[in-house]
Write a structure and sequence with these properties.
By secondary structure, the chain is mostly helical. 72% of the residues lie in helices and 2% in strands. The protein starts with 8 loop residues before the first helix and ends with a helix.
Length: 395
């Protein structure tokens, strides 16, 4: 990363350190990030330029995306894009992996769990850095482990691919995303786990969204719902409920209001049987259904948009919901507010989305579209809008 992109990083690190509750001392930040106290002091005084690894460590310790610690956020975006060819190369040899070291499954399990946490927190930079090598190692492990362990190794491969897919899909590499989904489908069949297959069907919907093949996507999701296990356990309830949430949004994009309402009603009934949580890598529960109801309203458009505003008037996503989903809520809400003539509110929602998950927000095509429209309207402050539009590449 060019050094100029890090000018002023010390001041931003000091700001976020002071903004934590309770406030972190320099010593506490150094301990949490596993760097020396002297390094923290020099960075905050502007006497040292932090390395990429140090920025990533400080971002994790502060609970913010490392891109927020940079003045010029372009380099962070470049780092993710530069990793995409490595991800593609990792996929090319999934059935013929090169020989090399393989960690025990327990260690691989830990690495995959960490990648899943990054995905839910919308921290795409560490995913892009770690997943190419991890995918190669996991495919190598799957072909090397005893038959009794192949189901677990396949399941780990599915979960790792899902984290890699979050980067590919969010950063517009839809062909790569589709290849990752196909590898997930292959590995799920190897695992012979119906709940895992349901989670892959949930992710596969992205390929239909990207292709705008919404009617076909709805058929695929409804077929997966028919094949999903009966909702007799918490995991099975969540798997079926998540598919209904996805189907509701897909139906909304297809303009099928009746199916959207039906799937949303089914999702809410299943969510009422669970507490909000992460099940098989997907957030599900009453709060997640609220987020998807907003998305359905925006997808259907027209008179339905008022429903999104009604929900936002009485409910907002809680802070413990995954960052990617929370930021998505505000991105969808911003579009509903913009369509309703609430330009200032729309810009406030976009800024809130950026605060929660900057990389997710920056890469979302709706954010660029809406920021460009807002800038033309110049209703929320021309300079602030221009800065935001430049940040998300809307201009």
């Amino acid at each position: 990363m060019p050094a100029h992109g890090k000018d002023g990083a010390g001041a931003r690190i000091a700001y976020y350190r002071s903004a934590t509750r309770p406030k972190l001392t320099q010593r506490q930040l150094a301990d949490a990030a596993h760097v020396s106290l002297g390094t923290i002091r020099k960075i905050e005084r502007g006497e040292r330029v932090p390395s990429d690894a140090t920025l990533d460590a400080l971002g994790r310790a502060l609970g913010v995306d490392p891109s927020l610690l940079l003045g010029d956020r372009g380099p962070t975006r470049t780092r993710v894009h530069e990793a995409l060819p490595s991800l593609s190369a990792a996929l090319a040899t999934y059935d013929l992996p090169e020989e090399g070291p393989v960690r025990p499954l327990a260690e691989l399990r830990t690495a995959v769990a960490e990648a899943s946490r990054w995905r839910l927190a919308a921290q795409y930079t560490p995913i892009a850095a770690a997943l190419p090598d991890l995918l190669v190692e996991l495919t190598r492990a799957h072909h090397a482990v005893p038959v009794a362990e192949r189901s677990e190794s396949a399941a780990l491969l599915v979960r790792a691919c899902r984290s890699a897919d979050a980067v590919a899909f969010k950063f517009g590499a839809h062909d790569l995303s589709a290849r990752l989904v196909e590898l997930m489908r292959w590995a799920a069949a190897e695992a012979d786990d119906p709940l895992l297959a349901a989670s892959v069907a949930y992710v596969r919907a992205e390929t239909f969204f990207a292709a705008r093949a919404h009617s076909a996507g709805l058929r695929a999701l409804e077929r997966s719902l028919d094949a999903a296990p009966a909702p007799s356990t918490s995991a099975a309830i969540a798997a079926k409920g998540a598919l209904h949430m996805r189907a509701a949004v897909m139906a909304g994009r297809a303009g099928d209001g009746s199916s959207a309402v039906t799937h949303l009603r089914e999702a809410r009934a299943l969510a009422a049987r669970l507490s909000e949580g992460i099940y098989c890598g997907t957030a599900f529960g009453p709060d997640s259904v609220n987020v998807h109801e907003v998305s359905v309203a925006v997808s259907l458009g027209g008179a339905h948009v008022a429903r999104a505003l009604d929900i936002a008037a009485v409910w907002r996503p809680p802070g413990d919901m995954p960052a990617e989903r929370r930021s998505g809520f505000y991105i969808e809400l911003a579009r509903a507010q913009l369509w309703s003539g609430l330009s200032d509110d729309a810009f406030a929602s976009l800024k809130q989305a950026r605060h929660i998950a900057p990389q997710h927000t920056r890469e979302h095509p709706w954010v660029r579209e809406d920021a460009a429209v807002l800038r033309r309207l110049k209703r929320a402050g021309s300079e602030a809008l221009t800065n935001f539009a430049e940040w998300c590449a809307a201009i």
